[in-house]
Write a structure and sequence with these properties.
With 59 residues, the protein is mostly helical. It is built from two helices and no strands. Helix 1 packs antiparallel against helix 2. It is flat.
């Protein structure tokens, strides 16, 4: 398997990841475990999608 990423999409991917991390932190700091968990689950799902896309892995 070799990565199929394009460096042109990295800035957007980084922005999405920072926003995802911020949502997790906001849930924690806001003492809202449901929001923190939902944000974390969404982030992990998106991260796996990025891995699948990068390495052309079928679902």
């Amino acid at each position: 398997m070799s990565p199929q990423s394009s460096k042109s999409c990295l800035p957007e991917r980084n922005r999405r990841n920072v926003a995802a991390h911020q949502a997790i932190v906001d849930g924690i700091l806001g003492r809202d475990p449901d929001a923190a968990e939902a944000a974390l689950r969404k982030h992990l799902e998106d991260a796996w999608d990025q891995v699948r896309e990068t390495f052309n892995i079928e679902h």
